[in-house]
Design a protein that fits this description.
299 residues; alpha+beta; 6-stranded antiparallel sheet; two-stranded parallel sheet; 13% strand; rod-shaped
């Protein structure tokens, strides 16, 4: 075989890019060594006529596969980045939608609450106006009744004075009772009922606020009868009567007769009118609501 014949290559196909790079480095080192040795040889050295085939660095198929792998990897990375971006956008959109829905609900609740408050205010205003109108009408009615009672009382007092002179009627033991004229019980009851709804004030004697004894005193004054101002003094007058034998105009008392702490006017039908307390004011109640301790009759 000629010494110039080519030496066939028995290299196996390269399996990976890392091995390809390693072999390329080795080949580069060999070529560099040969070049350095040639340059350092004697000037009269004989020319080299034998050639050596160096191992090839790789085939076109390996390069193509490597490029394809790199391109596929880049495409996969780009797709992954795109997917992550889309996912972030979706999450941001969902979060914004939830926030908008929450704000819309809060605004709707606020408007509904404002509407309810406005309706309640209008209703309260209407009820207040109706109450004021009713109170004004009641006050006007009471004023008219008081005027009528005052006129009636004046006439009854004149008649009573004449009857007292003609009949020679005697006064009560206390000396503070005026002879009751005919129809005085009705005047007492009418006056007491006309004050229902007025307020209770300690020491009140009218015309729109009363305490218990102030109301009883004013009711009897409407019939032309003068009574003491204090409740225990009022219950000490007249004669005691059984609660089973009550008549309109009788004075009811709570406590002992000489030491009563509350008085009211019996108006008939098992009921009485009294200035109870600051919570109820002047009311008409059944005897069962607060049974009295006893009663006295002045008429």
């Amino acid at each position: 075989m000629s010494h110039t014949a080519h030496i066939p290559s028995h290299r196996k196909p390269r399996r990976s890019a890392s091995k390809l790079a390693l072999r390329a480095g080795v080949a580069g080192g060999v070529l560099g060594t040969i070049a350095v040795a040639g340059a350092a040889g004697p000037a009269n050295a004989e020319p080299v006529t034998e050639t050596i085939e160096m191992p090839t660095l790789g085939s076109l198929d390996v390069g193509t596969n490597l490029a394809s792998a790199v391109a596929a990897s880049a495409e996969a990375s780009q797709q992954e980045a795109l997917d992550q971006s889309l996912q972030s956008l979706e999450q941001a959109a969902l979060k914004k939608a939830a926030q908008d829905a929450k704000k819309a609900k809060a605004e709707a609740d606020r408007k509904a609450e404002a509407e309810r408050a406005e309706k309640a205010r209008l209703k309260a205003e209407k009820e207040r106006q109706e109450a004021e109108e009713a109170a004004a009408a009641e006050r006007a009615s009471r004023s008219e009744t008081r005027t009528q009672l005052s006129t009636t009382s004046s006439g009854s007092s004149d008649d009573g004075g004449s009857s007292s002179s003609d009949g020679g009627s005697s006064a009560s033991d206390s000396g503070s009772r005026t002879q009751a004229p005919s129809g005085s019980a009705a005047s007492i009851v009418d006056f007491a009922r006309a004050q229902v709804g007025d307020s209770y004030v300690t020491g009140g004697t009218g015309p729109n606020s009363w305490d218990c004894s102030g109301l009883v005193q004013a009711a009897y004054r409407a019939a032309g009868i003068d009574l003491p101002r204090i409740s225990y003094q009022q219950s000490s007058m007249g004669s005691s009567v059984s609660l089973d034998s009550l008549q309109p105009g009788d004075i009811l008392y709570w406590g002992s007769r000489s030491g009563s702490y509350h008085v009211a006017v019996y108006v008939g039908g098992g009921k009485y009118v009294g200035a109870q307390n600051s919570s109820t004011g002047v009311v008409e109640r059944s005897l069962d609501w607060d049974p009295p301790s006893g009663a006295v009759r002045i008429l």
